[in-house]
Design a protein that fits this description.
The structure is a homodimer of 114-residue chains. Chain A has helices at residues 9-20, 24-32, 38-44, 50-62, 84-87, 90-103; strands at residues 66-71, 77-82. Chain A has 114 residues and is mainly alpha-helical. In chain A, a hairpin with a 5-residue loop joins strand 1 and strand 2. Chains A and B meet through helix 1, helix 2 and helix 6 of A and helix 1, helix 2 and helix 6 of B.
Chain lengths: 114, 114
């Protein structure tokens, strides 16, 4: 049984904090699936407001996970792209997704269509 | 580029919420490393108070990740053990740890002894 690596702890704690901030995990997952536009990200995450998405994207940008790319067309096009640091979160978020699929039961099943 | 699986979203969101709650990710990691006693867990996680650890353990118990095991010796011995659901988080938390080691830089390096 390995000892807990205390030296890793502050880094790990920070990582969990970044991923775990309300909505950030879901926003990152949607972006890993290829969404780059504000409205596409917003629509893929239930109950996420414009304001909250905007705030989270700014935080993820400040943390180095996301870059905001402005294309000077008419109208101006804005894309949010994952940096290599952001892309590198893929395996961790996939592992969380796999765990969630296996273990999390939702209090009320959403309506499902066959 | 796969579409975001919207059906997974509420489960995934809940999983991120469980792991991401302040200290929970670190507490789970310490428990995955084998710590079962309150004081051992507490000492392995910097800045974690008794009160916060107690609260988090109760939440993790309510969520089915942890069981509290009482052994009627003198004095009574209490161990906190991960359930299969809790143990199953290992790969996800390891992946977060690997990402953190590679990508997270700490604002101030902690004092290190050779």
């Amino acid at each position: 049984m390995p000892d807990f690596d205390a030296a890793l702890c502050p880094r790990y704690h920070r990582a969990v904090e970044i991923i775990g901030r309300r909505w950030s995990g879901s926003i990152l997952r949607v972006m890993l699936s290829g969404a780059t536009r504000f409205t596409d990200i917003k629509h893929a995450v239930p109950d996420l407001s414009d304001r909250m998405l905007s705030e989270r994207l700014k935080e993820l940008e400040a943390e180095g996970l996301v870059v905001r790319e402005v294309t000077s067309s008419t109208p101006v096009r804005i894309d949010y792209r994952l940096t290599p640091m952001g892309e590198a979160l893929g395996p961790a978020l996939d592992a969380i997704g796999a765990w969630a699929t296996r273990w999390i039961e939702l209090p009320e099943a959403p309506a499902e269509r066959a």
